[in-house]
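Record type: ASSEMBLY
Status: queued
Input:
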Amino acid sequence: MVQNDGNQLVKAQELARRLSDATGVYFRVGSERQSTDDSSLDGQGPGQLRTLEVSVGDEIVELVYDPGSGEAGPFTTRVLKALAREIFDGLIVSDRVQLEPWTWEKLLNMALVEKWDTGTFAARVGTYQLKGLSLGFPVLVHCSTWIPEVVEVLENLFPQAPVLWVLKPDLFLYVPLDRNEDGLVEQKAFGNALIEQIHSLLADELGVLATVFVGQVIEEDIWAGFLEVRKLTELHRRFFIGTLGLAAWNVGLAVLMLETRSIVGQDYIRGILGHLNKELLDTLRVFLEKDMSVADSARALYIHRNTLTYRLDRITEITGHNPRRLTGAVHLYIALWLSNHSN
Amino acid sequence: MAGLSFKNVVKKYDQNTVVYDFNLEIQDKEFLVLVGPSGCGKTTTLRMIAGLEETTSGEIYIGDQLINNVAPKDRDIAMVFQSYALYPHMSVYENMAFGLKLRKMPKADIDKRVKEAATILDIEHLLDRKPKALSGGQRQRVALGRAIVREPKVFLMDEPLSNLDAKLRVQMRAEISKLRHRLQTTVVYVTHDQTEAMTMGDRIVVMKDGYIQQVDTPMNLYNHPCNMFVAGFIGSPAMNFLRATLIEEKGELWLVNKELRLAPLAERREALTPYLGKEIIMGIRPESINDDLSYIKDHPAWSLDVHVDVVEPLGAENYIHFTINGENLIARVEATSQSKPLQIHKVAFDMSQARYFDVETQAVIHRQGYEASY
Ligand SMILES: Nc1ncnc2c1ncn2[C@@H]1O[C@H](COP(=O)(O)OP(=O)(O)O)[C@@H](O)[C@H]1O
Ligand SMILES: [Mg+2]
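Status: finished
Output:
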């Protein structure tokens, strides 16, 4: 029928286009033969594309879609019915195609393949009527080697996690907050603890070396959360290599430095700290760590405060930046930070 | 149960070597501590034992078995960290059994091991509880139990006490000691804290920049450091260092440098003679400097006038911060000390405890009385 009736073909194409727009899964008109049993399409092997069959009267229209871009679910069926009523008259959906429900993981997969922005994702969440998420942390676990038991361990560690998306050798989780973690301070402590807990459990239980990235607390906008933790992996590689992972609130200056070419950073470090000897560098480091407190720093360094004052004067002379003043301390701190975090 | 040995182990990340030619024999049932400043390669070394990181070259053995190519989960090791996560919806029993289930162990064996571990840890009465219903200390024991049921040949611990508050730290340290004695297992323990190393280790490996500096018992590290790094790293407050030139006057050796004039012990003559006329570094621990009047009177050749900067009373003792030739030193003296800030004060250096180092190599010059540990 489709083959013989140009008007019907145009209608089928319109159906495919509007269905794609509404669902985000790309449908197109499939085989132009009337056969309903042959699932091989356009020379592709069976199983690579899926077929959705709709019958119009005693004729069949085949729509095909790539399951890699998402799965047709009950919502698709509803939209299809509505569109069919509008475009064709009296169209019904065949029961031969098993329609699977949408999940967060499928939506995330689709977003990844199609490089959605966060707005598109939010719109799709509405479209597919996914169940809402409570406040939680987006967490990316990167494993140095992949074994399937990682999923089992993490499922058991976070039985309450509504999203567990496997991206071998990575794994993305959404870990809801306990009710105990209401305050911001508690939230961050919980988030920081996640890094070591996941790392240690996978190391001890499975012998897998994992690096763990924790994003800011989110609700619903899980795609934004994923994009954030993915960015953290880059920051970690550049500035925090050798640590167990990174939480979004601990990136500090790194996020600024990511934009800077490393050669600029090196020049900056050399320009400011280049002429300090080890004793003065250690003194400076402790002084800034102790929040510019002369008393605390002198105690930590086992030196007298007069000695400390003398050394701080030397640092000022040599670098041109006085660590006892905010502006000087900022320059010295940035240079020290860079020299600690760049390889 | 088994010892552990490293043969020429090297670890590189790209071109960057972080562990150099590591050679070490760890005895069966030994508690060995790896200590050194942050970034010296402790965690990397531990991870190579665990199989979380591959060695770039060299061999690691557990007992007689070469483990380089053994999968991490088949290495018979357990790792203990400071932060414990239990599976929240499983009972204590299930938490301890889970790792064995993952290893496909028969149910009856699992049951036997879990019950044994529960006895060792005194948590038999908690086996049916969920983690939520446990105290912090009980949870920690369950986490240890998870490692114990695997009956590992070696326990690996990476800074399990850092970041804990003082109370929990004491509790945890006791737990580890108890565990160690009950299980009679080899332990490799990593810390950057020399006090922790000194109080816990049978032997200690001091590392710096990826190199082993010295492997020794705590007492040997304290009394016979092999170089200035070890000397300065072990002990708190740290050892004082002074530069001086070695001269001979009327048949006696003297160390001199402006305000400084001290006589080395006669027994050191042989070791020091090659340095006559040259500059060397003397190291002296704060506890080997005192200001007891009768001691000063008995040892005039070991006494000096120094400039006191500050006196820090700590109750049982005082720290005197003072300078010689503008260098800062600390003495740890009796609380009865009469020293006053900003005054000249007489102190005596117990030169029998002085150590001497080569200016160039920073290696110790003499090691009289040193008996190597096994
Ligand atoms: N994955 C890695 N890639 C590159 N360098 C690393 C990596 N892991 C650790 N390092 C580097 O190796 C050195 C030793 O690290 P580590 O063993 O963690 O030291 P420690 O535990 O003694 O503090 C450090 O300089 C660290 O930056
Ligand atoms: Mg470490």
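Annotation: The pocket of adenosine-5'-diphosphate (ligand 1) is lined by residues A 241-242; B 13, 18, 36, 38-44 (CB under 6 Å).
Annotation: The interface with chain B takes residues 144, 149, 152-153, 156-157, 159-160, 193, 196-201, 203-209, 241-242, 302-307, 343 of chain A (CB under 8 Å).
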